[in-house]
Amino acid sequence: MSRFKLLLAVTLLTLVVACTPSKPVEPPKVEPPKVQVGELPCAVTEPGPPAAIRYPLDSLYRAGAVLPTPEGLACLEHLSDWLYQNPGSGWQLTVGAEEVAGLIPEALASKRQQLLTRFFQRRGLSLEQWQWQEAVVGAESQLALEAITETP
After folding, report:
1. In total, how many domains does the chain have?
2. Which of 15, 94, 126, 152 lies most in the core, judged by the most C-beta atoms within 10 Å?
């Protein structure tokens, strides 16, 4: 009788050990909700394809200024947060410049581009898949981003 109890105990112990998961069960990871392109302040968005984000005149910079306004900086911070949360997309960026007496528009756009590059890098963005385009004088937007799509 004791052998029967011992055999029963060993069998039950074997079943319990066999049914126990080898790794602890982790709860599924819930990602924070991603910012939708339509929620970017100051921006005019086009869902695409290709998706496009444009910042109209006077939304980021005052006329002839290299540094953004405080409101424009807040808009750029929202943009960088969105780009950080949506990595992997290539972007074609164009910086616009307006004609202002005493300033060369191409030089203004070039300085804005340099500062934007540093700004996005300091915000932790990888700019490897980004393509900067030549400045557009008299453009309807101060900054334009267009998603790069692969052509078959």
Report:
1. 1
2. 94
